[in-house]
Amino acid sequence: MAASEVLEGRTETPGSEALRGLRDTLPFMFGSIPFGLLFGTLATGAGLSAWETMAMSLFVFSGSAQFIAVVLLGGGSGIWVVWFATFVLNLRHLLYAATLVDHVRHLTQAWRFPLAAFLTDETFAVMERRYRTKGGGANAHWYYLASCCGMYANWQFWTFIGITVGQNYPEVQNWGLEFAMVVTFIGIVVPLLTSVPYWAAAITAGLVAVLANPLPYKLGLMLAALAGIVVGVALDIRKRGLDAPASGPAAQDPGP
Amino acid sequence: MSVAVMIPLMILGMALINLAIRWPVYLFANHFRFPPIIERALAFVPVAVLTAIIVPTVLYPGDGTKLDATWHNPALLAALVAAAVSYFGKNLFATIGAGVVAFLLLRWLLPI
């Protein structure tokens, strides 16, 4: 970011920054409504109580991890598999934090903690764009915090509505909507297949996952994920050399 | 361990894992450096993990023990429809809509 961009921005008050942050996050809040509803409705069918479903949205606050927990629990997976999948899949948030860290370095730890804990795909998209186009500014962290709070409150509200729907109309859980979660994953993966290394990573992961499916404790899933990553990186290095920077578009995420 | 104990433990673990991923970079912002090879590997994570979840879920319907790679498997056909819509349409909501509608129709139409 050029210094001139920082100077261009007028000094906004915390309130005006927060309003803008919320406004710029609104499209993403609308976008995650169906996912919050779907999660709330289907989680109880996968063996979670209403309280547990709500607690997952409140404390985990990660759409893809929550979807995966429901799909994996429904398929009879154990707790370790869910933890592994959560960890590996959400590792991308490390990249987000690494991208934004220059803009939060000057803040106190009391500010940095919520800005880190609520760093979802959507807020990353909003903040990356904001810092790239308008630069920082003395109160930019209020804009960031408002984006976080908007996404969080929205996710809790629609999870709650989803739970209510699932409890009052339990037959909804037999409609086959759980397939919507699988299709959501497909809709995330396919646009990421932009070059040979990504195709190779997906094909390898899919093939190994099927071949290793009989292994106990869903070890096949972990094996397949690792094999896909190794093949992808190897081909990426062959294609672009050892010192090229990381590539590829960021994943779209269901909900936060 | 009973299921009643397991789910809260699972949620707690997931919450801590997420925090362990999102927080350290900001916490240690002043001493932070990322090995480039790790950054490149991270870029492949979503594709690899999600595919490793999708493919067996679709190919092993029901209790997940029997491979069904035939056209009698509505999940397989609907997944192919969704993949095609995603590839040509590039729209997440159109993909979800097409995949779910295809799944429900096929489940109703296909002889079991």
Automatic annotation (TrEMBL), chain A:
Presence of keyword Transmembrane helix: yes
Short name of any one Pfam family annotated for the protein: AzlC
The keyword Nuclease belongs to this UniProt entry's keyword annotation: no
Transmembrane domains' residue ranges: 28-51, 58-85, 142-165, 177-199, 219-237
Subcellular location: Cell membrane
Bilayer topology: Multi-pass membrane protein
InterPro entries linked: Brnchd-chn_aa_trnsp_permease
Family affiliation: Belongs to the AzlC family.
PANTHER family: INNER MEMBRANE PROTEIN YGAZ
Protein name in the entry: AzlC family ABC transporter permease
Organism of origin: Dongia sedimenti
From TrEMBL, chain B:
Annotated Pfam families: AzlD
Keyword Transmembrane helix set for record: yes
Record InterPro entries: Brnchd-chn_aa_trnsp_AzlD
Keyword terms: Membrane, Transmembrane, Transmembrane helix
Transmembrane segments annotated in the record for this chain: 6-29, 41-59, 71-88
Protein's recorded name: AzlD domain-containing protein
Protein's organism: Dongia sedimenti
